[in-house]
Amino acid sequence: MSRSIDQFTTPFSPAEAFCIGGIISACDVHTNETGTSIWVFPVIHNPQKATPESLSAHKKHLENVFAEIPTITVSKGESDFTKYMQPNKDGFVFLFESKDLNTPENLIQRFANNILCSEESIRCAFISGVFDGRSSWDKSGKMITLDSRNELCAETICSILDSLSIRYNYNPPRERASGNPRKAQLRIYSTDVPDFIKRIGLISPTRIKDIENASICNFSEEFDTVLDGLTRIMGLRISTQTREYKKITREKFSIEAELDRKLLDDVINEIDSDIPEKPTYKGTPKKKKAPTKVSSSETYPRDTNTALNALKIAEYKCEIDSEHPTFIRKKNNLPYTEPHHLIPMAYSDNFDFSLDVEENIVSLCSNCHNQIHYGKDVEVILQPLYEKRKDLLARAGIYIAYAELLEMYK
User: Fold this and answer.
1) Which tens digits make up the pLDDT trace of 380-399?
2) What is the pLDDT of residues 169-213, one digit of tens each?
3) Which of 25, 112, 256, 278 is 20 to 30 A from 52, comparing alpha carbons?
4) How far apart (Å, rounded) are the C-alpha atoms in residues 190 and 239?
5) Do the Cβ atoms of 382 and 369 come closer than 8 Å?
6) Which is nearest to 255 in space by CA: 336, 180, 345, 125?
7) Helix (H) or strand (E) holding 116
């Protein structure tokens, strides 16, 4: 059923929350000849920043999102465009009429608290609307930035970001020596951009592409089933800055070690000398399988065939040194090596994609395998393996700094 913004009531639909977010972000209201207020939801780009194709796709997506909300669309070249948008900008605007909401104060009083009290998916839709039409990508700082036009509206946006645990920096307006005052600006920290784009997402094809271009590893896109065109990015990593990982409990460590031993037994029992063809690295991110509950811990399954593939790719040689001595298996005529997850499976919750991939499984002789688990000089084994695998891992959507990996083995 069609509802105008005056008729929006809780529970909000995702489309209504998205609409409210864009209107509060722009905080731009006009009055027509009948005295009705016109609230603007703008999509703004610098000249030639967005291609005609991406602008057209963005507009079509938003038309579908607002299909049940009465609105008027004005594009560049139409007579009223410069009434609502700077003439030197590219883009389009959606206009929403209101008889009740005449000022930013009215707007905030009507919607702010209700959005804040809504379920997470509605708050995420609101924030997506806030940033979809007006935000910019700071290439040097790797931050999503948004000029703020009204302090009250900015406070509302910040409170919703706080509720979603998205960290940001807010710079209030200030005078400059040049005499040109600096606008207030809200910036999503680069450390929080991956979480922002994974949980909240954007519709704008141009802004999505800007963020994707900053990734230092492969990623995948997921498309929302409710808001047309809303894209979330899984596995984004835009910084080489070292992250801290949650320490593994003794109980979880013991459970994971037992699962690793079971994988080794399964590989020994399954391995076959008849290899029809040598497998290759997939080079794409792999979705995680559902975890299983073991005692009080959740663990992710290991796939025997994946481990076998990794050994086959390595030609059953130790990846530290192919000349390391080994022996021939009883069951077949293949050299004995053991599979080892370079990034331990116990840390799966810290990554968007599966760690149980050939790119993360190395082939080691028994001595090297024991040294990486129990040896004092683990770096002698770990660092060369990291250097060999870091690019392969990145293609599988897994980025990890060496310092992060080393910390997992301490």
Assistant:
1) 999 999 999 999 999 999 99
2) 999 887 766 667 778 999 999 999 999 999 999 999 999 999 999
3) 25
4) 8
5) no
6) 345
7) helix 104-116
